[in-house]
Amino acid sequence: MGAKGEVIAVCSSAAKGEKKRPIPLGTFTTDHGLVGDAHAGSERQVSLLAVESIEKIRRLGLEVSPGDFAENLTTSGLSLHTLPVGTRVQIGIKVMLEITQIGKQCHDRCAIFARVGTCVMPTEGVFAKVLAGGEVRAGDSIEVCTDG
Q1: pLDDT beyond 60 at 116
Q2: What residues have CB less than 8 Å from 73, skipping those under 6 apart?
Q3: How far apart are CA 108 and CA 92, in angstroms?
Q4: How many Cβ atoms from other residues are within 10 Å of residue 8's Cβ?
Q5: DSSP annotation string for the chain
Q6: Is the dihedral of CA 36, 38, 42, 46 positive or negative?
Q7: pLDDT tens digit string along 8-23?
Q8: Statement: residue 1 has pLDDT above 80
Q9: How far apart are CA 35 and CA 37, in angstroms?
Q10: pTM value?
Q11: Domains (range + CATH), the chain
């Protein structure tokens, strides 16, 4: 195993295009995503954003929290957006994700962009597919797998 961090929050929303709200426990299903989340089953099954990226927006004067960028997993301690596509990360004991995309094209400017003139999701948001499912909660470890 390689670099290690921590899950700060697990977040979900029932509808696309809205902030996600922290939940105590998330169940991730193989080849699907977070059970009950609007983006589960899509091409971008799970979204991740480092709290360090959220801090960049906070320093611009906007009060933002986990889920405000519509990410499923807010993490700490890993520079997620620098990991190459294809990298596998293990969360807790069972869950295994594979990074499928770094950043995304925003077709509509979000409220965060409108307020501070920038957003971190287009360059620092990470998307992944679920290779092995299980439960995830805040405080779980997230670790880069070096053996593929």
Answers
A1: no
A2: 7, 9, 10, 11, 46, 47, 48, 49, 91, 136, 142
A3: 35
A4: 21
A5: ---EEEEEEEEE-SSTTS--EEES-EEEETTTEETT-TTTTSSS-EEEEEHHHHHHHHTTT----TTTT--SEEEES--GGGSPTT-EEEETTTEEEEEEEES---SS--HHHHHHS--SHHHH-EEEEEEE-EEE-TT-EEEEES--
A6: negative
A7: 999 999 988 778 899 9
A8: no
A9: 6
A10: 0.87
A11: 4-145 (2.40.33.20)
CB atoms within 10 A of CB 94: 12
For residue range 48-90, what is the model confidence (pLDDT) as tens digits?
999 998 887 778 777 888 888 888 999 999 988 899 999 999 9
Residues in the chain: 148
Q: How far is CA 95 from CA 49, 90, 107, 114, in A?
A: 17, 6, 31, 35
Model confidence at 129: pLDDT above 80: yes
Predicted pLDDT at 59: 80
* Chain centroid to CA 143: 14
